[in-house]
Amino acid sequence: MGALAEKTAVNTAHPAGFVARIELDGPIGPAAAEYFDNAMQRASNDGATAVVLRLDTPGGLSESMRQIIASILAAKLPVLGYVAPGGARAASAGAYILYACHIAAMAPATHLGAATPVSLGGSTPMPSPWQGDQPAPSKSTDKASSDKTAPAGGQAANDAESNKVLNDAIAYIRSLAQLRERNPEWAEQAVRGAATLTATEALDKRVIDFVAADTTTLLTQADGRNVRVGTQMLTLKLANLPVRDYTPNWRTRFLAIITNPTIAYVLLLAGVYGLILEAFHPGAFLPGIVGGICLLIGLYALQLLPVDYAGLALMVLGIGLLITEVLVPTAGAVGIGGVISFVIGSIMLFNTGVPGYAVNLGVIAGIAFCAIALLALILRWVMRSRQTQLFSSDVLMLQATGQLLQAVTAGGESWAHVQGERWRVHCEAALPAGARVRVLRRQGLMLWVTPA
Hints:
Elements: H1 2-9, E1 10-12, E2 19-25, H2 30-46, E3 50-56, H3 62-74, E4 79-83, E5 89-91, H4 93-100, E6 103-106, E7 111-113, E8 145-146, E9 149-150, H5 160-179, H6 184-192, E10 196-198, H7 199-204, E11 210-211, H8 215-222, E12 226-229, E13 232-235, E14 243-245, H9 250-258, H10 261-280, H11 286-302, H12 309-327, H13 333-348, H14 361-387, H15 394-398, E15 401-404, E16 412-418, E17 421-427, E18 436-443, E19 446-451
Parallel strand pairs: 1-13, 2-3, 2-14, 3-4, 4-6, 5-7, 6-11, 17-19
Antiparallel strand pairs: 7-10, 8-9, 12-13, 15-16, 15-18, 16-17, 18-19
Helix pairs in contact: 2-3, 2-9, 3-4, 5-6, 10-11, 12-13, 13-14
């Protein structure tokens, strides 16, 4: 009876239909998670027989990774995880996602693994090397996801927080391995020791189900396999089915653009400087409108990304010091401090332990160079202003000479042309019109003059 019950529990997926293909390229973030959820829903509504999830990712954010895995576990369609094309990888968060798929496959010349977590506040030291049948490598260039971050390597961790993060990640990936009947020991090794495997090695260690050169081969090899979808066992009938690609919609593309750390960084700066220009030139409107929009979009992107708020505070301090240098010139001391604060804050702004979530250093260097050039220009203007000859002052007026426009009697008043201006003058000596005079002093709008 038990064998009969097991046999009747195995249904056959309807052979008619098509296979939906979803592609996750690049870092796993909010845009990728939203795209996957929407594509899965559309594929289900369209009557897809199965979903091929093609992976090529260095890792990403834990929150987005868990959202994708939750969608896979709740899916009513079998999901075939496929690391492709050649040269692709499912590192960090990608390894977790591949373990969650009903079928796991890799193309030749691909690899997966390196899933050690780190904390948001800084890199978590690497735990002790794995002592199983294969020692874990001592170093790894890949990093994986944690709570809003990805894992990274280092030395042994003894603090309680690191152990909690590590044990949670181990339990999570082991549970996925046990659910899909794959190698849980190597899954733990990937987290504990940041181990990686090539496609052939992954097949030998029962981490994946098979190696497939392309999507057609993938569907052919998956054909006839039994997978558990929810509470049912399904026999896959996928050979010769057409493949339909599900691409991101405009909202997902827009979200992917603004959550790129470099784009978010530029939007933030454009917003701040736009509002500053509007403050210095009230009524211009365009800088203020554009700056406000950019600032709001940049702040929205920041709340989705692994931001170090100490870096953000340093950037704000740097911009404030540069503005202070413009308003109150200090021979460059405050301005130089502002540039240094701004550059350090820009480098610290995003947690660089998360794969794919760091600001391009070339952009930071370019903006810093522009700030230094602006500071040098301001200092040059200040120095030139200090060396410029005075054009109007009492000191300059005492050195001036002019010409009488009308004759003047002794002790009387008349008019004179002094420094291009018409002045009322008082003279103790009688002088004819056209005589040259020299200014002695000024009292209000009256000049006391004497023969020059």
